[in-house]
Amino acid sequence: MWPFRAKTTPPRRFRYERFGGIAQLGWPRALVFVDRDRARSLGYRDGGALWKGEEPGLDGVLSAPLEAHLQLTNRCDAGCQGCYTGASPKGERGEWGLAEWKLAIDELAERGVFHLALGGGESAVLPWLGEVARHARGRGLVPNLTTSGLLAEEELARLCGIAPLFGQINVSVDGVGEVYARVRGFDGFARADAAVVRLRRATRHVGVNCVVTRDSFEHLGELFAWAKKRRLREVELLRFKPSGRGARTYEKLRCTDAQHLALLPTVLELARRYRRRVRLDCSYTPMITAHAPDPRLVRWLAIYGCAGGDLLIGAKAHGVVTACSFAAPPPGGPTVEKLGAYWGQADAFPPFRAWQEAAREPCRSCEYLALCRGGCRVVSAHVAGDAAAPDPECPRVLAHAASQQAGAGSAMRRLPVVG
Description:
Blueprint: E1 11-17, E2 20-25, E3 30-35, H1 36-41, H2 48-52, E4 67-71, H3 98-111, E5 115-119, H4 129-138, E6 142-147, H5 153-162, E7 168-172, H6 178-184, H7 189-202, E8 206-212, H8 214-217, H9 220-229, E9 234-239, H10 250-253, H11 257-274, E10 277-280, H12 285-289, H13 295-300, E11 312-315, E12 321-322, H14 339-343, H15 369-372, H16 377-383, H17 395-414
Parallel strand pairs: 4-5, 4-11, 5-6, 6-7, 7-8, 8-9, 9-10
Antiparallel strand pairs: 1-2, 2-3, 11-12
């Protein structure tokens, strides 16, 4: 029996995996992992080399990522102080064009990737963005888009014309009114708001991305109220990460430890009050597990920590593959149209795939390790100087460090005085 009874459509796509497979639903829009028995009951009986154990692969690693985050360009006029890519009006040398990205999409389709997240820079300035989206649709992938909305009239009109091609369009709004200006470094809220209104007329699948900072955290209620007023279907909250220009402004903009601990109860209360669907990016998993939810519930809700190099990959504007949008390219990493050979290598995406064997205390003995995966590698690399270190902003890691420090201080006080 199919697990969803009401308003459920048959799978649109199915990808075999060693454990069974992954079904892509049209409604509700979801990817569902099923075992072999469930796959057979749905009519998917030929697991081929994967089910027979003849297909080479790595234990615990999917046959391909579920989604790819493609930075189509590093061009953007906004100049946000926390930009994760350091985008500029001229972009960067060697950026790919339409032909290269089509080849990349062909490779991702052959690998069985389900979703594309298209971003920048500002991808909406590209006159061939619609061609990328159409090509992805033609190959069975769902393209989604993130835009600042800070577009010239011609660019915004073009984007509204192709909006139905995208599964979801999220506009980046890091706060309402003057909060936007404090976070971004300039006043652009009115323009972003106007773009939201225009896009919402073109498609109902419009949401908002908000990079949460210490300035915006206390004003999240205003963001949710605005999202409801604009009839936005989704609020996606992203943790501020030290990459691009964001590395220079990290200490100024990052949330406080108290705010991180308050994130989950705050978001749950706002989601209920304003009845908006909320997504939290994977780097927030340590802040969720700090409240000790039942691990079975966390697993059932598919809440996982760092998914880079596993459930997702990124690709820079010149096509080089990364573990996630915020990570630097791995040494010897390929361009995205050559992903296949690299994906199956045991040493691919260091240290993203090595989270379990490299886990240190308190992660190693934490009951959530298999779900949290040690937190955000990008934050660890910047703050601790070691991407394999436990996430230094995890409440459990902070408590462990405080305990160790207190213990060391107590031991020092017990040392005999010599002299």
